[in-house]
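Please, does this match?
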Amino acid sequence: MGFHNKPTTFVEHVTIKVENLARSIQFYKEVIGFKVLEQTKTTAQLTADGKTSLVSIEQLKKALPKPSRSTGLYHFALLLPRRADLANIINYFIEKGVRVGSSDHWVSESLYLSDPDGNGIEIYADRDSSEWDWENGQVAMAVDPLNVPGILSEKKEGELWKGLPAGTVMGHIHLHVADLQKTKPFYTEGLGFDIVSKLGDQALFISSGNYHHHIGLNTWTGVGAPAPPDKSPGLKFFTINLPDEATRERVVANVEKIGAAVTKENGVFVTTDPSGNRIHLEV
């Protein structure tokens, strides 16, 4: 888990907008395995360890339909501590009849599904970083079939899925963007991430501290895709954790240097990427 704490810069929290709070809470508790940390009439903070919120959900007033072609959330990704945890949730999904996608990315093994509003979710376990194949600063990743029987062999006898383990963290976020060439300087020159993998001219994967990726960026909804309406379900903002105040000051200066705005809202530094994805800069 060294890729998700200081001095690494990483995504620590995601806030999403939903149409029906009660429906979403039921899904995130019963299917994903979150606990509710705090709740109001229109919001809920979701936690794995009972102390730290990883995902916030906010109910919209008179939600508009989610566009099929827009920028915003592709998925947020919950990183499990062990491969055995992935085995446990696969077994749970089989028992409950939950339909999921899956993939072996070489660096990690992943499951994919969506919440009732179409917000994408990945649940994954990393392979040990010593097994990742790096060449010239680029990490090898793929989209291969998942070896489900191999993962299930990791299941401990008598161990059942009891919800997300306490060591679960926000592993990464993957975003739809309008233009990779315009987006790349914002995340690299501005926020300071490194490009660690490319998928032709359609996707970039960026990280800090030699992780396989903290953020994915793609144009799979089309180059020039518009930002979604504020009142449609989807990403409201995500939070990047910076190691210290000096780093945040440097990041703010660099973001402003490339022409993007940084504002302070209720004591929080906020910026927006060229595709309209809002980001909170926390220390």
Summary: Residues 83-96 form the longest helix (14 residues).
